[in-house]
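Appendix B, Record 12. Input sequence as logged:
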Amino acid sequence: MNKKYYIIDFDSTFTQVEALDELARISLQDHPDRELIYKKIEDLTNQAMEGKLSFRESLAGRVKLLEANKEHLKLLVKHLKKLVSPSFARNKNFFKHHADDVLIVSGGFKEFITPVVLPYHIRKENIYANTFVFDESGKIIGYDEANPLSFEGGKVKLLKELQLQGEIHGIGDGYSDFQLKEFGMIKKFYAFTENVARKSVVEKADHVTPSLDEFLYINNLPAAISYPKNRINCVVTSQVPDQVVKQLKKEGYTVKQVEKLDSSNVVKARIIVAGGKEKIGEEVLEAAAKLKLIAYLGNAAKAVPVAACTQKGVIVFDDFKKPASVLKRITGFINNGDSFKSLNFPNIQLPALSRVHRCIHVHKNVPGVMANINQVFADHQINIVSQYLMTNDHIGYVIADIRSDYDKVLLKALKKVDNTISFRVLY
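Logged structural output:
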């Protein structure tokens, strides 16, 4: 089997920020011209990332402006540990299982990269980056100019030296990451846009990955969640407050804002968030074949065909007191299966997931369904870690947590159980 390697950038990819920019804000916080210098450093960063300035020119210019020392670096590391990209933070398990295959390759510096990535099971010998040069007092006075990563096209130079034998995938946000594909050093380049989307880079990518979840999903690699949020389309009406829209986007959902719901704009919707004056007709529900959830900012009983939603396995939340609670209910259901405070599902609040896959089965509340579900688990020799069942007059809501070492045939069998309304799997 052909070995696979994953080359991952650090700045604005593994972390949410550009570390040298952050270091400048720490080291220059008392400088009278700090805002001007910050701007110069950020401009040098962006010009290099967009391919408008050679990396070596950008690096030399930024290091010269820093006026930083080892104490500043300690503060930076503490700061960066809190700014690991959310999708990287939740996928520690991937790095643990692929410790031999993941390489951090960055034009940044080992002094701050190494302590940030080591807790994620990244091997020290798999971290490739520049190194600072210090004077006797610990002040940064330069960098190792012989390091290939300090040159323009440094990542290409490094991979030529490493001569990795296998299929190589590259993930990053900058032009230097794309160069690996441009020069034939990797099979695929994934433009990482969770933190920043650079048009000149995105246009050249084999695939745009808004999160690490997306990358893991399309490559069938172990992930913290079964379905990337960027693939979950959320249609929001104009009456919904901007605060809610911003929260949904920040959480990673693909958000489409519309003036009014109709059969044409909900076709791909998995979530609908509507304001208090919007009426949701059954024709909209019929058109939204993928719909899983409706969040209604008002009295849904008067504006949503609740009975029809129940028959289709669409959960309805309504009457939110605070905008923040909208995201809480949506994410609780999508991430964890929580139906607490829903209008039409049996109300259940579940413990967080831990090293299991969670199966969510919604079915008509008729005798025998639960027995049939458990028979499927038995037929496939599945050890159920925990199981929850609640019903109301119309539906049964079953949650089963199972170990991840099962055959995918199991999922098909669960979908075929008589009287099934909907079925999905969470990680």
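The domain at 4-218 is CATH 3.40.50.1000 (Rossmann fold).
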